[in-house]
Amino acid sequence: MTKLLKDIPFSVLDLVPSVEGKDYKTSMRYSLELAQHIEALGYHRIWISEHHNTESLLSSATPIIMGYIAQGTSTIRVGSGGIMLPNHVPLVVAEQIGTLATLYPNRIDLGLGRAPGTDQITAKALRRDKMETVNDFPREVQEVQHYLDDRLEEAPVRAIPGEGTKVPIYMLGSSPFSAQLAAALGLPYVFASHFAPAHLMDALALYRERFKISKQLQAPYTMAGINVVVADTDEEAEYLATSGYRFKLNIIKNNRVPLPPPVKSMEDMWNVLEEAQVKNMAKYSFIGSKETVRKGLEKFIDKTGVDELIISTYIHNQDKKLHSFKLLSELKE
C-alpha cells in the first residue's frame, strides 16, 4: 500500500551547528528555539547528533543538549541521533539516558551509532587504548538494553536511574552491517541518507527481509535522513541551500568552521570534483517551494517505503530556518 505524505511523521535531526557570526551560546539557543517551534507545528521528535573536535558543530555533550531541549519543551520526543557507542561505556550511557527518561518520562529516545563522530586522532583520545572488534558493538548495544530493561535488584551492576525506563533504542547506520544488526535485534532502523546515501535501498531491503520480532518492536520500522530547505519560491530555497553546500564542502576540505551564510553562486566556491562530491553527499535533498518539495518527498516515500522522515536543514538565518519548517509542516494539511 502506498504511504501518503500526510501520514508520515516528520522529525528533525539537529547537529547543533555553530552559526557564523554568532557565539556558541546563541547557536545552542537556536537549537532550543527550533525544538520549541517544531513542537508547536506538530513534529514528532527532535534528535541531537554526537560530534567531536569541530568548531562546526556543538553537540559533543549530546545528553546535556538533550536535557536542555527537553527542559525547554513539553511534548516533543527528544533523542540522540545518535550516541556513538564505541566512545562510551554502556553503563554510563544507560545512566545518562535513564536520568533523562526519569526527568522527562515517555519522551526520550536513544539512537545508537558505531561511527566515532570525529577523526581518528580524536577517536583515540575519546577511547584511549580501547581496541574495537566486530563483535564489540552488538554486545554493547545489548548491554545498554539490559541496563534499561526491567528492574533487576539482584543484579551486581545496575543503571540507577535507568533500569525499568525501557527507553526505546534505535539503530543508526549507513551500511548493510547496521541493517543486519537492527534486524537481528528487532530494533527500528535509521539510515543516514542525508549524508551517506549510497546503500539506502539495499540496507532497507536487507533490514526488512531479516527483521526479527522483539520486545520493543513487532514489525520493521524504518526512518531515513534527508536534507530539506523550503522557501516561498524555488529560487529563494536554492539560495538558502548554498549554506548547506558550503558546509558539506568544508567537511570535504577538512575545514572545521561555523555554518556560513548563503551565496548567490557556488561556481567560484568549488571545482568540478568537489561539486560532484558534495552533490553525491546531498543526493537526497529536497529544495524549493512547498509544491516542489512535496513532489520530491512523495517520490522518495514511494521509492523507499520508509515509515518516518528525519530532516536535516542547514540554513544560516534563524528566521528563514524556522519558516522552512513551518512551510514543510503545511504539506500535511
Q: Can you tell me about this structure?
A:
This protein is of the alpha/beta class. The chain has one domain (5-332): TIM Barrel (Alpha-Beta Barrel), CATH 3.20.20. 42% of the residues lie in helices and 15% in strands. The chain is built from 11 helices and 9 strands. It has helices spanning 24-41, 62-71, 90-103, 120-127, 136-148, 176-185, 200-210, 234-252, 272-281, 290-304, 318-329, and strands at 10-14, 45-48, 77-84, 108-113, 169-173, 189-191, 222-230, 285-288, 308-312. It has an 8-stranded parallel β-barrel, surrounded by 7 helices. α3 packs parallel to α5 and α6 (176-185) packs parallel to α7. The longest helix has 19 residues, at 234-252. The radius of gyration is 19 Å and the shape is globular. It starts with 9 loop residues before the first strand and ends with a helix.
Give a short summary of the structure.
By secondary structure, the chain is an alpha/beta fold. It has eleven helices and nine strands.
